[in-house]
Amino acid sequence: MRIGLIGAGRIGAFHAGTLRAHAGVGELLVADADAARARQVAARCGGRALPVDALFAARPDALVIASATAAHAGLIARAARAGIPAFCEKPIAVDLPGTVAALAEVEAAGAVLQIGFQRRFDAGYAAARAAVAAGRLGRLHTVRTVSSDAVPPPAAYVPLSGGLYRDCLIHDFDILRWVTGREVTEVYAAGANAGADFFLAAGDVDTAAVLLTLEGGLLATATATRYHAAGYDVRMELAGSEDQFAVGVTERTPWTAVEQGAARGLPGPAAGPAGGAGPASPAVGAEAAGDAGAGRGAGGAEGPAGADVGRPGGGAGSGTGAGAGRAWSGFLERFGSAYRAEMDVFLRVARGAAANPCEGRDALRALLVAEACEVSRRERRPVRVAEIAEAAHGAGVAQARARAAGAPGHGGHGGRGGPHGHEGAVA
Predict the structure, then answer these.
(1) Are 180 and 240 within 8 A, CB to CB?
(2) How many Å separate Cα 185 from the centre of its chain?
(3) For residue 259, what pLDDT is reported?
């Protein structure tokens, strides 16, 4: 296959390496607003660098869009009109009306669009989804997600990111829908700024918490922060009437179980309830989802040993989080195998050999939740997702009509990718 890649930033360069190593890819075409960067990535991966217009003229069999967010909608529409199957990193557009308008173009053309929510291809999340579907937890009543960055993004990135809910927590909203099989109906969101001033200056927050209500009365919480110096931490806990499962708890999880005592030199509990020696704590942190590249889990994603849901025990994955192994440094390391599995599936989708696992409408549903969170935080009230969907529909229709009439912005170019890539800073 001849594959086009637009965007040669951090995530684009990662995809370039994955595509060039894939047995089904015979030629890789690379474009970027920064021609020198495109040439550098193309040379490293044995591809060919060329401008965006020339890339489309070359009629690739499929297109991977990893450019700056502002260029996504135009490139998606251009690929749709050309009949080129496209993969696009989230988000589809810089705002909700733009997203609705872009999807209208894709659907009118009958085009293929797969969106980059890579957690769906992580072995741990796939195993959790299968466990929920099989009823292994009993009646699912509570879900908790945690997303924490090791370091905050650069100040210049924040005003362009869309904010913590749209840029980062949107991954939690998507995986929450996917694992549980339920839609979010209402949110109540709060945010705080206790770190660098540039978050507040951009109208953003550096820490957020959301209470979500899903269909059937399922409750969920989602928290995120830009500050977690111990390492990159992304987890999910699912609680049911019969059992509780966790995703992302491994020897590389950057946390400390204080009952273990010795992790990172912290003092352990010196005495039991009566002042005597306390009992030894059981080992914690079985590998439910961890080390990329060690084994293959559900959904074909290369993932950690123990991705089949299991029990904490004395295996290699048990211990005290970061104290037992090097903590995850960022999203490309934590989800590297998921990104590769995601791209493999896209190539099969482009050939007509597989169903699309993450369509544009999935991205829209997650974005509606993120938009509801922004309204909730700003107005300090619960917000129903349907309220946001109704408001977006009219705006999206108007924007689609403007595009069809040849309004400015109908095209699209490969812009510079944000310095923090597309898993958000937090993923």
Answers:
(1) no
(2) 21
(3) 79
Round to whole Å and give the CA distance between 78 and 83. 9
Mean of the pLDDT values across residues 388-393?
A: 86
pLDDT recorded at residue 266: 54
Judge whether residue 295 has pLDDT over 80: no
Give the residue carrying structure tokens 């890339």.
Answer: 55
CB 52 within 8 A of CB 32: no
Q: What is the per-residue pLDDT across 316-331, written as a single tens digit (0 to 9) for each? A: 333 344 445 799 899 9
- Cβ atoms < 10 Å from Cβ of 361: 13
pLDDT over 80 at 235, yes or no? yes
C-alpha pair distances (Å), 183 with each of 66, 132, 187, 214, 402: 27, 15, 12, 6, 31
pLDDT tops 60 at residue 231: yes
Q: Are 115 and 88 in contact (CB under 8 A)?
A: yes
Give me the domains of the chain, ranges plus CATH numbers: 2-118+341-359+387-404 (3.40.50.720), 120-268+279-337 (3.30.360.10)
pLDDT, position 160: 87
Categorize the per-residue pLDDT at 54 as very low, low, confident or very high, splitting at 50, 70 and 90: very high
How much is the average pLDDT of 146-162?
A: 92
* Whole-angstrom distance, CA of residue 291 vs CA of residue 285: 13
Of the candidates 87, 171, 85, the one whose C-alpha atom is nearest the C-alpha of residue 370 is 171
* pLDDT recorded at residue 115: 98
Q: In whole angstroms, give the CA distance from residue 46 to residue 347.
A: 19
pTM for the model stands at 0.81
